[in-house]
Specification:
By secondary structure, this protein is an all-alpha fold. It has one helix at about 1-25. The longest helix has 25 residues, at about 1-25.
């Protein structure tokens, strides 16, 4: 009984991984962009010693 449960969970994990990888490859073709919006961040830095 417990072995069947582990086997089922293992199979579901494999299908989930395959689905995630497939979605990552097909997503941009469907108009879903996974890249974050680029933004510039500036912070002043004070260096010691000069």
């Amino acid at each position: 009984m417990l072995g069947k449960l582990f086997k089922l969970l293992f199979i579901l994990a494999i299908f989930g991984f395959i689905g995630l990888v497939g979605f990552a490859y097909v997503g941009p073709e469907l108009g879903i962009d996974f890249a974050p919006e680029p933004s510039e961040i500036r912070m002043p830095v004070t260096l010691e010693g000069q």
